[in-house]
Amino acid sequence: MARFDILVHVRSYEGDSLAATVALALARRLDAYVSGLHVAALGTVAYSTLETVVFQVQEADDLYHTALAQRESWAQRLGAAGVAGDWLVAQGEPVEAICHAARWCDLVVAERPQLNADAPIGWGLVSRAVFGAGVPVVVVPETAKPASVGERMLVAWNHSREAARAIHGALPLLRLAKQVVVLDGAEQASLVGARHLPALDLAGYLARHGVTAEFRPFTVTSGYGAGILDAAHAAQSDLIVMGAWGHSRIAELVLGGATRHLFQYSDVPLFVAH
Known about the structure:
Blueprint (H helix, E strand, L loop, with lengths): L3 E6 L8 H13 L1 E9 L9 H19 L2 H11 L3 E7 L2 H8 L5 E6 L12 H8 L4 E5 L10 E6 L3 H16 L2 E6 L17 H7 L5 E4 L6 H11 L4 E5 L13 H9 L4 E4 L1
Parallel strand pairs: 1-2, 1-4, 2-3, 4-5, 6-7, 6-9, 7-8, 9-10
Antiparallel strand pairs: 5-10
Helix pairs in contact: 4-5, 8-9
C-alpha cells in the first residue's frame, strides 16, 4: 500500500520527461503512488469562422484521445521504475487541471522551463500552480541534472509561515535524507498584534520528528536567492526546501525576491510550499 501520492505534470509524452524522472526518484524513496497528468490543448475558437470551429473541435478531440492512448507507455515506465501509479489526461488550461488533480495528492512535481533572465517571473504555469495547488510543489528546472533527489537536502529557514509549511510537507523526505542542512536566516517581522510570542524551535521540532539536521547561520548583505543557491551548491544539495511568497496580496503571483531568483536561476530542484 502506497504511503504517499505524487502528481507529476507531464508536459509532453514524447521523449523523456525530466519532471517524471524526478517524480519517480522521489516515489522510490517514499513508496509513493505516482499519477502522471498530461493536459491536452483545447484550442481557441475566438475569432474563428463557423467553418473552422468544427475542424478545431475535431483536432482537440484527436489530441485528447491520443494522449489517453499513452496509458500503456506510462505503465511501462512505472513498471521499469518499480513504482505504482496511473495515467491522467485533462484538456484545457494546465494550471486549473493541475490544481484540480492535486486535491487528492500530497505533492506535485512540475518542470519549469528556464526563461530569459529579463523575463517577468510569477505568471508562469509552475508559479501559479505553487500558489493554487494547496500542496507542496517540486519545481524541476529545465537545466537540472539530478543524479539523486532528496538525499542531500538544504532548508531555507526564515521563520515564516511559508517556510514552516514547506518543512511540514518535506518531513517524509527529510527523515530519509543522508544530509540535511538548515540555513537559519533572520526571523521575519511579525504581522500580528501580539507580544512575547513563543520562539520557533525548529531544531527541537526536527529532532522530535526523526530528522538529524545541521544548522548554519545565514546572513547575506544582498541577494538572498543567490546566497541560498550558493549554499546549496557548496553543500552539494540535490533538493532545496523553501517557502514561496509574493509581494502581491491580491493575486499572490508576483514572487518575492528570493523566490523569483531561485525560480529563475536554480539548477537544483526546489521543494516549495505557499
